[in-house]
Write a structure and sequence with these properties.
By secondary structure, this protein is an alpha+beta fold. The chain is built from eight helices and eleven strands. The N and C termini lie far apart (97 Å). Helix 6 runs antiparallel to helix 7 (202-213). The chain is elongated and about 80 Å long. The strands form two sheets. Strands 1, 2, 3, 4, 5, 6 and 7 form a seven-stranded mixed beta sheet that branches. It has two domains: 13-154, no CATH class; 159-288, no CATH class. The longest helix is centred in the C-terminal third of the chain and has 12 residues, at 202-213.
Length: 290
């Protein structure tokens, strides 16, 4: 009989999992739906990043980007390890979407499967960018308890692209109640410079007012569409226009135009138009004073 010996020096699963997380480069941690043409990718491109929230959405995201994930996993798939995309756990008051850029922050979660048992490798680190010496991993069997490496997915519909067709075809109520006048006044004032530039909520106010004044058949506007945007600081870019008209005995037509800029830098503005309507004719003095 031969002598029994113990061979050491092999890399443990924990060490290997941590190594994979650490070796993900900034390039690895960015993926885009651009260039993906499968059914799931096509559907996701029609959503804003803020609208990608459900388990089904993330299952579709993994399918949409399967080719890119397969490429990323190719160097270690023979070991039973693989990376998938999961939702980044929400923290109080924190948004993980950028609708102005069409981007969503997610996490890349590493798992390993051996003999039918799957482990999810929960990453703990004080710095997601560098994953330094303090980083550690822990194997968990509950996927919902696992956290991975922060990553970014781009290629979603921007807020401006979402809003543009809805505003250009916007349909108001045909009959306004007395209580609607407060929202009409709010709407007419949204292009006035705010008294506090650090607390500019005009875009949110616009969406709220339009939703309050819309016809039942009009699609509800998603207020997240304006998160990350600012109104152009050039006053003439944002205006209501009141012109003569004669529709159903109403003699004026009220329309709006404004420019959205991503953040506060004022670059690459998007021009949006609010469909003209004679339904606001009796309230036109509010819009003429802007």
């Amino acid at each position: 009989l031969g002598k029994e010996v113990t061979v050491t020096g092999f890399t443990s699963e924990n060490a290997y999992a941590l190594k994979i997380y650490k070796e993900l480069t900034s390039e690895n941690l960015k993926m885009t739906l651009d260039g993906s043409t499968n059914t799931q990718a096509t559907a996701l491109k029609e959503k804003m990043a803020s609208q990608v929230t459900s388990d089904e959405d993330f299952a579709n995201l993994n399918t949409a980007l399967k080719a890119k994930l397969d490429s990323l996993n190719s160097s270690f798939e023979a070991t039973g390890f693989k990376i998938e995309i999961i939702k980044k756990a929400s923290e109080s008051g924190q948004n993980y979407f950028d609708n102005a850029a069409g981007a969503l922050q997610v996490q890349f979660l590493l798992s390993s499967t051996n003999n039918g048992t799957t482990k999810y490798w929960k990453l703990t680190t004080t710095n997601q960018s560098t994953v330094g010496d303090d980083a550690s991993v822990e194997a968990v069997t509950d996927k919902t308890a696992a956290t991975g490496r922060d990553a970014d997915i781009t290629g979603f519909k921007t807020g401006a692209s979402y809003l543009s067709p809805l505003l250009e075809s916007f349909v108001y109520k045909t009959t306004f109640e007395t209580t609607d006048e407060a929202n009409i006044k709010k709407l007419s004032n949204v292009f006035k410079a705010p008294t506090d530039s650090d607390d500019d909520t005009r875009l949110e106010t616009m969406i709220d007012a339009l939703n309050a004044l819309k016809a039942e058949t009009q699609t509800q506007l998603d207020k997240n569409a304006v998160v990350g945007y600012s109104l152009s600081t050039t006053a003439s870019d944002n205006k209501w226009t009141v012109v003569s008209s004669d529709v159903d005995g109403k003699l004026v037509n009220v329309s709006g135009q404004f420019k959205l800029t991503a953040g506060n830098d004022g670059t690459n503005p998007s021009t949006l138009n609010i469909k003209g309507t004679s339904d606001l004719a009796e309230f036109s003095p509010h819009f003429m004073s802007v």
